[in-house]
């Protein structure tokens, strides 16, 4: 059965048309169950109602933000999002997504570990650390042909972004390897692909060189809260991570930074 046929059978048809500003104007048609109460339980507690109200306000605000990013989030707002019902978050998130992207498109990315194992850091969640006994063995950095052939294969398989990761603390004392990586970025960009890297901590010059080579994005995770960080990693500080993120941003490279849920942190740490 074709995608069009499947969508036609859906009980919820979504009609999408492009507005002049490339945002999406959405109208929805719903089918109504004969007895909705049989299919849903509504939490009518004051807390749940407050969360849902905030979620709707947040979604409405995002619909009129015209792509503007906020950097002035209050802790109470973040807490409200964190505690909001998952279906509310999915609904409002989908609205924001449709305003900025084609809802039927998916970007395929390929990630390659160009240097695996033997990392000097002591991240307690990572099997690539040399401080723990794991099945991951230390390897040398892949050579040029291995990396570029992997990128070509990724492009042939439909990927439009190619990401390279290396298991080490930073690039100090790795001038030869860094020079190769800069070359990888240039070569892969020439294949008409986006390129991202995660190479540990950077200095200003390294960030600038990656930008000039055509790097699309740089991944540098914060992992958890500042307060909980020392319980997970002791070989570097939280501020060192923030410094690299600032250097990458100042160089004009898009920053990708995430965290890990389930390291023993509290809900306060997550917010």
TrEMBL record:
Q: Name one GO cellular component term.
A: mitochondrion
Tell me where in this chain the Radical SAM core domain is found. Answer: 104-271
GO biological process terms, semicolon-separated: biotin biosynthetic process
Q: Which Pfam families match?
A: Radical_SAM
User: What keyword terms does UniProt attach to this protein?
Assistant: 4Fe-4S, Iron, Iron-sulfur, Metal-binding, S-adenosyl-L-methionine
The protein's name is: Biotin synthase
On whether Mitochondrion is a keyword of this UniProt record, the answer is no
Q: Which residues form a coiled coil?
A: none
The gene for this chain is BIO2_1
Record-level Gene Ontology MF annotations? 2 iron, 2 sulfur cluster binding; 4 iron, 4 sulfur cluster binding; biotin synthase activity; metal ion binding
Q: Which CDD domains does this entry report, sorted A to Z?
A: Radical_SAM
């Amino acid at each position: 059965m074709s995608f069009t046929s499947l969508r036609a059978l859906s009980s919820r048809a979504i009609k999408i048309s492009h507005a002049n500003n490339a945002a999406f104007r959405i109208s929805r048609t719903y089918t109504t169950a004969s007895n909705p109460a049989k299919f849903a339980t509504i939490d009518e507690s004051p807390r749940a109602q407050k969360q849902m109200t905030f979620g709707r306000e947040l979604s409405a605000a995002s619909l009129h933000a015209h792509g503007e990013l906020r950097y002035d989030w209050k802790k109470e707002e973040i807490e409200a999002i964190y505690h909001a019902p998952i279906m509310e978050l999915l609904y409002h998130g989908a609205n924001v997504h449709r305003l900025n992207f084609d809802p039927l498109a998916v970007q395929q990315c390929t990630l390659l570990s160009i240097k695996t194992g033997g990392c000097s850091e002591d991240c307690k969640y990572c099997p690539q650390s040399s401080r723990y006994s794991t099945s991951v063995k230390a390897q040398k950095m892949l050579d040029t042909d291995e990396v570029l052939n992997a990128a070509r294969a990724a492009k042939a398989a439909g990927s439009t972004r190619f990401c390279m990761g290396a298991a080490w603390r930073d690039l100090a004392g790795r001038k030869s390897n860094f020079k190769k990586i800069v070359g990888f970025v240039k070569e892969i960009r020439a294949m008409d692909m986006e390129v991202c890297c995660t190479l540990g901590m950077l200095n200003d010059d390294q960030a600038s060189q990656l930008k000039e080579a055509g790097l699309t994005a740089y991944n540098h995770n914060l992992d958890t809260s500042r307060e909980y960080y020392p319980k997970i990693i002791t070989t570097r500080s939280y501020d060192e991570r923030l410094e690299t993120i600032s250097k990458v941003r100042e160089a004009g490279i898009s920053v990708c930074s995430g965290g890990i849920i389930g390291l023993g942190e509290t809900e306060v740490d997550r917010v």
